[in-house]
Task: inverse folding
């Protein structure tokens, strides 16, 4: 699903998107997305398919990833002969990381809203062109032996904002031609750019979303310096919940640098996203228990002591910045703090549904 793209660091992606959206128009536009020649064959609505008043759809095959970093100036949507109501174009982002323990099955973490495009009502049984200014970032897939670098790839999605409007789809030979989320994300519930992956995944269907767009590269030379690659085969595991791959973790927790007083612990948290990292920080006396059924039934797991929570605190750290988060200790935490010398604890920072746990040494 991912295409190769330029490689700025993650904390600089927001600045790059800003540069993309302000870039001067170019005549070297490239069309990507679906072939709009076939007719729309589906009349299914969000309400019928998912029981929701809205839903989001994007093509997997043909890919809705941009061929290079640039600015989308025109979006096209083809509809069938059914009543039409408001729709919206979105830019979503996925992160890609090589899995050196299992080559050929990369870690893919998806999907983060980067930008809400224009809302429009398409024409019935026609192709509607929508002017837009949407920046898209496409970074190159890391070299095969690189298990640390994370590549970001942006793709277009279409939100159908009414539960009685047909989703513009046509049949596809691919078993997983399109993917869906329901309900569709909205700016009030999911501000953009969002540090949290959207929920409501509904899996894939044998269909194509009738959406394509024109994108202009940063330079008129064409391609923006990035070379498309073949997307992972349909059925490649896509991680949408649980811990992110190591290098895509939303925050960085340092093993050293934490401070301890009799009533509180101060822990440095670094935001690695292009938007504010907001969540909950939990300090425990030992690592959180393994949650898989097999591990939970093991003799070792049954004998292990349960971790004790020493304190919690909400945090908000600006993109790319480091902030010392103060955690007020509870009774168990204050008892630990009375001991002399350095103390070892485990802190877990949860941003959205993504927890990051690190063993930390605190000093008085």
Result:
């Amino acid at each position: 699903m991912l295409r190769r793209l330029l490689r700025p660091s993650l904390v600089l992606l927001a600045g790059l998107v800003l540069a993309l959206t302000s870039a001067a128009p170019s005549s070297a536009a490239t069309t990507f997305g679906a072939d709009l020649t076939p007719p729309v064959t589906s009349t299914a609505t969000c309400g019928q398919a998912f029981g929701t008043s809205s839903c989001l759809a994007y093509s997997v095959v043909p890919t809705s990833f941009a061929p290079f970093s640039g600015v989308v100036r025109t979006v096209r949507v083809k509809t069938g002969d059914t009543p039409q109501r408001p729709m919206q174009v979105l830019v979503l982002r996925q992160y890609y990381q090589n899995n050196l323990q299992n080559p050929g099955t990369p870690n893919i973490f998806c999907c983060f809203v980067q930008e809400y495009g224009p809302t429009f009502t398409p024409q019935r049984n026609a192709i509607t062109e929508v002017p837009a200014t949407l920046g898209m970032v496409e970074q190159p897939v890391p070299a095969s032996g690189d298990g640390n670098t994370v590549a970001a790839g942006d793709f277009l999605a279409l939100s159908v904002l009414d539960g009685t409007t047909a989703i513009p789809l046509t049949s596809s030979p691919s078993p997983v031609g399109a993917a869906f989320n329901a309900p569709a994300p909205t700016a009030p519930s999911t501000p953009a750019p969002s540090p949290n992956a959207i929920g409501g995944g509904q899996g894939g269907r044998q269909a194509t979303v009738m959406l394509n767009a024109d994108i202009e590269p940063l330079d008129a030379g064409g391609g923006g310096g990035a070379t498309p690659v073949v997307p992972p085969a349909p059925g490649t595991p896509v991680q949408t919940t649980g811990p992110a791959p190591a290098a895509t973790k939303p925050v960085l927790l340092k093993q050293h640098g934490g401070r301890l007083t009799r009533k509180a612990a101060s822990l440095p948290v670094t935001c690695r996203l292009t938007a504010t990292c907001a969540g909950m920080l939990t300090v425990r006396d030992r690592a959180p228990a393994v949650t898989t059924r097999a591990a939970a039934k093991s003799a070792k797991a049954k004998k292990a002591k349960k971790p004790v929570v020493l304190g919690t605190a909400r945090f908000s750290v600006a993109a790319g910045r480091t902030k010392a988060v103060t955690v007020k200790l509870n009774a168990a935490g204050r008892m630990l703090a009375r001991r002399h010398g350095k103390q070892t604890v485990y802190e877990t920072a949860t941003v959205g549904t993504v927890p990051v746990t690190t063993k930390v040494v605190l000093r008085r």
In short: The chain has two domains: 10-217, 249-363.
